[in-house]
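#random but structural
TW: two for the price of one
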Amino acid sequence: MSVPPSDLPFAPTLGSTAVRTPTTPAWVSKYLVRVVSLDVLVGVVAALLASLLRFGEALTWQYVLLSLFIPPMWVLALGLSNAYERRFLGVAVEEYRSVTRAVVGVLAVLAVSAFILNVLLARLYVLILLPVLLLGGLLARFVTRRWLLAGRARGDLMQRTVVVGRADAVGALVRSVKSEPSQGLMPVAVCASGLDGDWNMSSDIEGVPVSGRPRDAVAVADRMGADVVAVASHPDLAGKALRRLAWALEERGVELIVSPGLLDVAGPRLSIRPSSDLSLLHIERPAAGRRSVILKQLMDRTLAALLVLALSPILIVTALAIRFTDPGPILFRQKRVGIRGELFDIYKFRTMVVDAEAKLAALQARSQGNGVLFKMQNDPRVTKVGAILRRYSIDELPQLFNVILGDMSLVGPRPPLPAEVAEYEPDALRRLHVRPGMTGLWQVSGRSDLSWEESLRLDLRYVDNWSPIGDLRILLRTFQAVTRGSGAY
């Protein structure tokens, strides 16, 4: 028996005369105008520099003509490399990759053109032109992204989003989107199933109004003027139903985002494995291969040794300040749990009174930590010099010697105490699969202000997705977190 069209998910809106006309969000137009203008400027500057530095006053008309073609060629190469693709705008990694592909494209065009026309291009001209295009293109995207992120931090330049799926998955997705405004998604409505009552009896999920069931997603997107429909993991929204939804949104120029329900699996570990009748999502194993581990250890120890040399004046001044302001040892040693549960001695500058451990039991009831970790603002055991050292994480610098010795890494999960490991649930033990670090995802995401669950989630995300390039990014973010001093006490 055939099913009436009205009973098919999303079918009533397909082919309807009331279909919303596709429009380009205002923030996209603003972003494109800025980035294209900067790209044209980069092309002009690159052509001028290459011409003047290579030829000076001896510039020939052939290179004048070539230089006139460089700016439009550069913009065209970026366009063909998806640099202006709407879904990649504001996504740093993809935008930067597109610049690299565009530079390779320009090089290929110059080489092929020179071969066909049987002319010899000045090598210095090309060697100046391409690096300027590369650096200028990256800088243009860095500047426009800063403008975009600043606007999104104020709640502007956002994409109106309808979230669809089962109520619990929708709630998790809404929380995730709200916690990261840099993604540019602003939930304006929810279409959920699995509610305690009928949908019109539930006022909201995570502060977002419930406007219907999943089958009503297209109608709600039309009514709310949505730019994006985000589908949370839902067994009923797959296969034909999801395909119909994609068709309906395509007619309206609305983007479709699907959460596969894979928590904290980073993009580099995901790839599509196509087959004749379906596409499979392939998840690579975490980067724990021997070559990656050796590279990480080599990078850690080299950078740690260089940092010890560069920061030696600070280390000496700090040691003297502790020695002359409070009686007791300069360094604080404590047993911590490292990779595979091995114990090691961690080194820090002493920031508390000598008998701090003896006074801990009396302060446990006043802990402002996150359930497992003891933290306390205005801890009476902290010395005056110690408060300054903690605020800017100077007390952590002796751990550079732990890195050199191989007990720790520059980046990794926080090194736990044996007593904390004894309270770990099974999932938390995965933190011990990598060396603990001086800094990590949780340190640059809020430090002591995070809950234990959030700290654990970030540490597990790092364990499953770490890479040498990712470590460098975290080190750069660490400098910002330390200078702000947020969450440090």
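TW: number two ↓
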Amino acid sequence: MGLIHKQFLSGNRIYGCSGCKTHLATKDGVMSTAFQGQHGRAYLFQTVVNVIEGPPQDRPMTTGLHTVRDIKCCECYQVIGWRYVKAYNEDQRYKEGRYILEKELLIVVS
């Protein structure tokens, strides 16, 4: 598998994995805080780092059918959210390539 080189982020507010504090995203990458995850509130991010993606799955959600990949922390392997691969409804296409991180599974690192 090889070595994993983690990225370290800088900025006002850095979100990290609640299990191991690995940097995941910054406040500047938040697109919306009005999402719902499996554990409650969730944030939509433009980009995240230090994650491993699982296989694609079709998943019915409140906004319709989406193809998603679960994402987990590259350090402790905790599932922290998912990445939208495909949205089948035209009005949901803005989510494609974006990431959901669940608030319950995040901590503010700095």
